[in-house]
Specification:
mainly alpha
Length: 278
């Protein structure tokens, strides 16, 4: 078509007019298509740029959230580990104390029974008597509330259990030992209650931390997947933006060339028409 228009002087007017009209139709059709594509690209470019910025901001926020979730989950696991270690230590200490209290309470109970049955001399040779002597020697260190005078009274009785003063002293000693028994039983009950409360508290903490770890793990999984999806979307959008910008530059150049070429041919045609009239 371009070559045909250059040969205007050698062609008949009707042929030239037909070529010119066809060329103008070409200019109009392609010009409209180019204008539409350029307009669409000019709208799309900032929109895609905005989408990329939003996706990158969302990805950055998710990565920050993910780091926080991972830190919180690790802290929850550490809290469970530390709490378990403390609980095991406390349970072992309680078991030791309980065994000691059980032995002491049993020894006092046997002493009371022996004294009330008039078997003090025989009792003094038993293992329970040895436990009772040890208890009386360490009663203050064990935290048992017992007057020193009462302690000395029982020790004296145990040392002289078969003397002639046995009968008058026995009832007094039995009273002291029963009071000691009840005091230790109460202390053991309090310790047991505290241990049970500690166990319940530990189990509640463990359940809460396990739930927290589960929730955080789910959030980590979900956000990790979302971060991966966004990363792919960002790459795709950037590629789309690059292609759109490149096509826009190409279309703008083509449109400029087309406008120039069509304008030139229109000028040539108008110039020929003026010469024909003259």
């Amino acid at each position: 078509d371009h070559r045909d228009l250059h040969s205007f002087p050698t062609r008949r007017s009707s042929d030239l007019k037909e070529l010119y009209d066809n060329f103008m139709c070409y200019c109009k059709t392609n010009g409209q298509d180019l204008t539409a594509r350029i307009s669409s690209a000019n709208t799309k470019v900032p929109q895609v740029q905005s989408e990329i910025e939003q996706a990158e901001a969302q990805k950055a926020q998710l990565e920050q959230d993910l780091e926080g979730h991972q830190s919180d989950r690790e802290a929850a696991k550490t809290a469970m580990k530390d709490a378990t270690a403390v609980r095991e230590k406390e349970a072992a200490a309680f078991a030791t104390s309980k065994a000691e209290y059980d032995a002491n309470i049993a020894a006092v109970a046997k002493a009371v029974m022996a004294i009330e049955k008039g078997m003090s001399g025989g009792f003094l040779q038993t293992g329970a008597a040895q436990v009772l002597r040890k208890l009386l020697a360490q009663v203050q260190q064990l935290g048992v509330d017992m007057l020193d005078t009462d302690r000395q009274e029982v020790l004296s009785f145990l040392s002289d259990g078969q003397s002639t003063d046995y009968a008058p002293k026995s009832s007094e000693v039995v009273g002291i030992l029963k009071e000691l028994h009840d005091e230790m039983a109460k202390t053991l009950a309090d310790m047991t209650g505290e241990e049970e409360a500690a166990v319940a508290s530990f189990q509640e903490l463990l359940a809460a931390k396990k739930k927290e770890v589960s929730v955080l793990s789910k959030a980590i999984e979900t956000k990790t997947e979302r971060i991966g999806t966004l990363a792919v979307e960002i790459v795709q959008k950037k590629n789309d933006l690059t292609d759109t910008e490149a096509q826009l530059v190409e279309d703008q150049k083509f449109a400029a060339d087309l406008e120039k070429g069509c304008g030139t041919k229109t000028g040539e045609m108008e110039e020929r028409d003026r010469k024909s009239v003259v």
